[in-house]
Design a protein that fits this description.
It comes from Yoonia ponticola. The chain is globular. About 50% of the residues lie in helices and about 10% in strands. It has 2 domains: about 140 residues, Response regulator (Rossmann fold, 3-Layer(aba) Sandwich); about 80 residues. The strands form 2 sheets. A 5-stranded parallel beta sheet has the order 2-1-3-6-7, with helices on both faces. Strands 4-5 form a two-stranded antiparallel sheet. It has 10 helices and 7 strands. It has about 240 residues and is an alpha/beta fold. The longest helix has 17 residues.
Length: about 240
Amino acid sequence: MDGTEGLFLHQPATARRPLLGLTVLVVEDSRFASEAIRLLCLRSGARIRRADSLSHAERHLRIYRPCVMIVDVGLPDGSGLKLIKDMANASPRIDVILGTSGDDTLAGDVMDSGADGFLAKPILSLTAFQDAILAHLPQDRQPPGPRLLSDEQVKPDMIAFHDDLSHVAQVLDGGQELAAIDYVTQFLGGVARSVSDPDLGAAVNALALRRSNGEPLKPQIAQLAALVQARLASADFM
């Protein structure tokens, strides 16, 4: 930890910036979801660090201990549930551990792994984000007095959505192994929900249904890939 970060961590929270002095480690492979959390941390006064995989998160955790950790369940090199369980059982324990996913049905698995709470994607509400963290912070890290509540919803730059689509296109181009398809459906399902893209979400759900039913996947993969390419070619993201 450098001197600048040391000074940051000792700043007291305020009513307007209730997470001032906290460092949040976000373990998330979606650039769009990460950008949303970055904006929420900025509005709240928290410092953010990002890891896009389990291995990257482990490198972060060998160097410093965050106050808050937000872990996506589906990561490119494994399940975030394992990281949540490991950190929940570590001593000393990180103050607040939250799991997140675009699949609400995973909330129980997140809590069973030892997390303090679950954040369903999209994570855009400033008040809900602050509540999820403050509810589990020790008393000495709470802001003094009532905090200022806001109905603000952050709006990440759509360039981050473009980056996520490019990532999916690369995964699909790299092969169509079942593990890759499972990752794509999990990842892109959360992204589609975050950007409120029902057509993309429907294509992802159709592929996931075929996968669960043991049906041929190539036609649906081709349809999804074409939809991703159409989004990438759209002038909205140029």
